[in-house]
User: Which sequence fits this backbone?
């Protein structure tokens, strides 16, 4: 169960602190998929960074709890160990670190923090093989540096691969669909759907309704000007697709 | 050479080429150092000679001495050699070295310098490289030691289709100063040159990279590339970079780039969001920064040796 209560957060900019989230409330039951949609500048990406604990994104009020564990004071790696995963909108390139090294280091870091036994080279190899196959990730891609020279689709599949390997209980997907063609979108959606289980929750942040045809949400929220302004079922996404966000932008202003 | 050099004969920062490196100040009173007879090593490989194993030279510095090492390497047509120079020493000394390399047609030289001079040691090294057609020179320098070091490389690509790669890593701390100054001279057409240098500077250390690619009018279809990246690990560390291109041919591909700064925070956050703690994330990124240059050597054993040296340094500094 994820509970976000009265969340206020600001971002450090060159012109000083700017308040982006203004009293956001959200709770996601275990096993549920929630979608957040909203116009540009509503605070969607800020929310994802605040949840992951990025430096420069400061919570000024309110709370984030995951299975009753308070998150706001935790470092990014502590959140990862506690089961939080953010699929980045713009996955970061890491020259000189190949995929295999990166995945091994990440998995064993998380396993260690969770009090689980670290995997040996063979165990890791088996795990990597099984997960990459399902996502159509080639051996060649695994030999390359993390995200360096990857296509848009490869980068997003790589995010899902990491998610599958780290087995989070709460995943945030930040515009994982943007820029993908329909085939890549299906692969990504299949990857997410394969992980759905009664213990896992997802927050899918998107600009487009299309993704929600493939990852069926239980609840859809509209985020505008730093707050949830409307909540409904999957039909809300269709309504937004038809009418756009004009109503909500007006309301917020 | 048996007469002591006078301090006012040494190059000073007033000279353009020595602007960032104050040799007289670091050397202090040269008269206190005892000049040694030139220590000469000549390596000559006949036509078609292929080295199965890397050869090694150790240059040792001794406190109170002015060493004058001379290294000459001649590779005849088609010869192939991998050479490792190890620079070591103890106490305050000055190694004033000259290196002369002639690479014949279609010959290949891999030249690794592992520079671990003493904390007070000074090394100046003037290297001339002459390359004939279809030859390859692949150099790598690991700068770890020395109070002040300056490697001045003058490479002449004299025959077509020669390929020259000059790469290096400087890992500096305390008051160390490492200067790499390069003149890459493209005389013949269809040659390729690469310069790739990376520095990690801690404490009050200072790195200098001055690299110039000079493309003569006849050197059409030149492909010249130059890159210097430095990461400052301390607010008092300094990097001086001066990349230069001087091009007289009209059909060439040349580029250069230089960056100096702190470790980028975005990859740090990305790695932390995947469970690595901050120290692990920084270590992995900095190691990768170094490894990318080391991996240019192309000899797995030597690369492993250099990786190990870098890792040891990083563990002690980070």
Assistant:
């Amino acid at each position: 169960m994820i509970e976000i209560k009265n969340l206020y957060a600001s971002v450090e900019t060159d012109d000083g602190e700017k308040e982006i989230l203004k009293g956001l409330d959200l709770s996601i039951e275990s096993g549920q998929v929630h979608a957040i949609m909203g116009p540009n500048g509503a605070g969607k990406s800020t929310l994802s960074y605040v949840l992951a604990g990025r430096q420069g994104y400061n919570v000024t009020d309110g709370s984030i709890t995951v299975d009753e564990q308070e998150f706001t004071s935790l470092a990014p790696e502590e959140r990862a160990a506690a089961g939080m995963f953010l699929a980045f909108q713009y996955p970061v390139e890491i020259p000189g670190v190949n995929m295999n090294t990166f995945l091994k280091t990440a998995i064993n870091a998380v396993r260690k923090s969770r009090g689980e036994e670290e995997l040996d080279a063979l165990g890791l190899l088996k795990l990597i093989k099984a997960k990459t196959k399902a996502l159509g990730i080639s051996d060649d891609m695994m030999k390359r540096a993390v995200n360096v020279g990857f296509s848009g689709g490869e980068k997003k599949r790589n995010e899902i691969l990491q998610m599958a390997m780290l087995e989070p209980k709460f995943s945030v997907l930040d515009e994982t669909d943007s820029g993908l063609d329909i085939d890549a979108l299906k692969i990504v959606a299949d990857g997410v759907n394969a992980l759905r289980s009664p213990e896992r929750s997802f927050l899918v942040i998107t600009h487009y309704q299309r993704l929600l045809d493939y990852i069926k949400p239980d609840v859809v929220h509209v985020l505008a000007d730093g707050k949830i302004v409307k909540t409904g079922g999957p039909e809300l996404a269709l309504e937004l697709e038809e009418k756009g966000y004009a109503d909500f932008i007006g309301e917020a202003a | 050479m048996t007469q002591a050099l006078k301090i006012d004969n040494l190059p000073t920062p007033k000279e353009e080429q020595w602007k960032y490196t104050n040799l007289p100040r670091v050397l202090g009173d040269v008269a206190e150092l005892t000049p040694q007879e030139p220590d000469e090593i000549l390596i000559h490989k006949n036509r078609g000679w292929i080295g199965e194993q890397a050869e090694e030279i150790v240059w040792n510095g001794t406190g109170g001495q002015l060493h004058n090492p001379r290294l000459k390497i001649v590779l005849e047509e088609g010869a192939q050699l991998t050479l490792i120079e190890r620079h070591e020493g103890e106490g305050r000394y000055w190694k004033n070295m000259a290196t002369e390399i002639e690479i014949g047609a279609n010959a290949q030289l891999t030249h690794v310098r592992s520079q671990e001079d003493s904390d007070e040691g000074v090394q100046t090294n003037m290297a001339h490289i002459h390359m004939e057609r279809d030859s390859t020179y692949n150099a790598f320098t690991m700068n770890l030691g020395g109070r002040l070091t300056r490697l001045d490389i003058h490479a002449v690509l004299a025959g077509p289709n020669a390929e020259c790669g000059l790469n290096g890593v400087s890992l500096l701390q305390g008051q160390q100063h490492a200067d790499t100054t390069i003149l890459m001279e493209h005389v013949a057409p269809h040659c390729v040159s690469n310069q790739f240098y990376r520095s990690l500077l801690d404490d009050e250390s200072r790195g200098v990279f001055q690299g110039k690619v000079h493309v003569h009018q006849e050197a059409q279809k030149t492909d010249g590339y130059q890159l210097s990246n430095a990461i400052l690990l301390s607010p008092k560390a300094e990097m001086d970079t001066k990349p230069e291109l001087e091009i007289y041919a009209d059909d060439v591909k040349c580029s250069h780039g230089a960056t100096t700064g702190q470790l980028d925070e975005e990859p740090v956050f990305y790695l932390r969001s995947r469970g690595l703690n901050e120290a692990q994330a920084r270590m992995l990124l900095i190691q990768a920064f170094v490894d990318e240059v080391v991996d240019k050597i192309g000899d797995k054993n030597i690369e492993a040796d250099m990786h190990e040296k870098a890792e040891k340094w990083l563990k002690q500094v980070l």
